Amino acid sequence: MTISSGLCRLFAIVVLLHGQNHTSRWTRSMGVDQDVDAAVVAARAAFEGPWSRWTPYQRQCLLVKIRDLVEANFDELAIIETLDMGAPLTRTRNLKGAILQMIMYFSSQTMNVAGETSGNSLPGNITSMSIKAPVGVIGGIIPWNGPLISQWWVLGAALATGCTVVMKPAEDASLSVLRVVELLHEAGMPEGVVNVVTGYGAIAGEALSRHPGVDRIAFTGSTVTGRKIIEASATNMKKLQLELGGKSPDIVFADADLDKAVPGAAMAVFTNSGQVCYAGTRLFVQRTIQEEFTQRMAEFAKTLKVGDPLDSSVQLGPLISQKQLDKVLDYMHGAPKEGATLAGGGERLGGELASGYFVEPTIFANVTNSMRIAREEIFGPVISVIPFDTADEVLTLANDTEYGLGGAVWTRDMSTALKMVHGIHAGTVWVNCYGMVDPNVGFGGIKMSGYGVKGSRGHIDAYLYSKSVYINAG
Ligand code: NAP
Ligand code: MG
């Protein structure tokens, strides 16, 4: 797939989205209540209809076929995502392995669903057991920062367990989800099993999270929206999975291997231009190496090429939108006024990039944990270096946040590493690495970062419920 044929394909999707042909699968691009309603009706009919008779083995075969189609069409998917949300092709193409692995993980889970039997203490000839059943219609609401990968946490689990789905992708980046649904149908998924309603969160997203025909919401997005979804879900006591914002601590001790820690901690934030929920934006560096570390990181940041995301030598693309650009620049320009020292970057990029939403990878030193850049989620390539002296002190600082999504430590000392692993209050902790996710193990948040896990047995269980069965054999 060349870039130009990718563009043609994207154009075709956009035409379909805006097409007036009401017999096409997409009748309007901005979904409203009636569209959500129609999608939920279709998802319910599929859930109770033919899809409910598919065996786990059939669903496993479907997922394997989907994996192969995704692999065969991956170049196109990567281009669509790059054009839609600005992540460089070097990143979107690189997600192939992780996405194929996720699909295979969910395919393996189809055959791994089991209930329990136990010796019972009831009188008579009673056999008792618990069996697992799919919860029903899942509302999937995802953000714009990586739909190419994040959609699979919903689709994979639903297809593995026999649920059905109504997806509401972010209005800023919906196209990779629409193309994937085409591939799902091509693989043989029955009509109605996965439905997409594009449109605004406040309209389509709200309607979905309030809809009485939806049994569970799987949401990834901001903490503010997460709270609204909790409120809307009260209509019918929906079960919820909420992956929300973060302000994750990344802790570098003086004994760390700095050749690994410098690029590791830099890319823990700069990846995807900082638009990653678990970015390690509060970088705690032991005071004795603060100066050297900051300088080396600033030098590393200068080697990163920011620019046209379709250029295969570019590592960082633009931010997603004017709104996000304004927000990030506001934090960048406000930090020195609070007393932070600019150690690298700090500005919007000019020249031939002036018309895009490009910003420099940015580092602030001498930040305190109480400054705005250290407390609020920026969702841009901005690192706050906060000095510390002792392990106890840094744990107190690391946990002084309303969020609890991720955290990391860089050290050669196993006891220091373990002290941080046990002491950081977050759903995921990395040691001498950052941002790795294995679907077998998963990740999730605590505190204001939400609840429910992505990946692992817990993820599959959340798409199932337990049914207790008592059989009187007479
Ligand atoms: P957002 O505003 O919360 O949007 C996320 C999704 O929710 C979008 O599809 C959005 O629709 C929709 N939405 C907005 N208002 C809604 C409502 N009242 N009811 C139902 N749905 C609604 O977040 P964002 O600004 O797009 O994304 C950035 C945020 O996502 C950051 O805070 C980041 O930390 C978080 N995030 C978390 C994770 C994680 O796994 N923990 C991963 C990625 C991002 P529209 O945008 O189309 O209007
Ligand atoms: Mg949004």
Structure description:
The protein folds into two domains: 3-244 and 449-472, 3-Layer(aba) Sandwich (Aldehyde Dehydrogenase, Chain A, domain 1); 249-439, Aldehyde Dehydrogenase, Chain A, domain 2 (3-Layer(aba) Sandwich). It is 42% helix and 17% strand. The chain has 17 helices and 20 strands. The protein has helices at 3-18, 33-48, 56-72, 74-85, 89-94, 96-109, 147-161, 175-186, 201-210, 223-233, 258-270, 290-302, 322-334, 372-375, 391-399, 414-423, 456-462; strands spanning 116-117, 126-134, 137-141, 164-168, 194-196, 216-220, 239-243, 249-252, 282-286, 341-344, 362-365, 382-388, 403-404, 408-410, 430-431, 443-444, 446-447, 450-451, 453-454, 464-472. It binds NADP nicotinamide-adenine-dinucleotide phosphate and magnesium ion. Magnesium ion (MG) binds next to loops.
β-strand amount: 15-25%
Mean pLDDT: 94
Count the E strands. 20
Write out the CATH superfamily name of the largest domain.
Answer: Aldehyde Dehydrogenase, Chain A, domain 1
Quickly count the helices.
Answer: 17
Shape: globular
**Structural class determined from secondary elements:** alpha/beta
Strand order across the largest sheet: 10-11-12-9-8-14-15
Q: Radius of gyration, Cα only, in angstroms?
A: 23 Å
Helix content: 40-55%
Largest sheet: 7 strands, mixed
Give the name of the CATH architecture of the largest domain: 3-Layer(aba) Sandwich
When the domains are counted, the total is 2
Per CATH, the class of the largest domain reads: Alpha Beta
Q: Can you tell me the CATH topology of the largest domain?
A: Aldehyde Dehydrogenase, Chain A, domain 1
What small molecules does this complex bind?
A: NADP nicotinamide-adenine-dinucleotide phosphate, magnesium ion
Unreliable sequence segments: 1-27
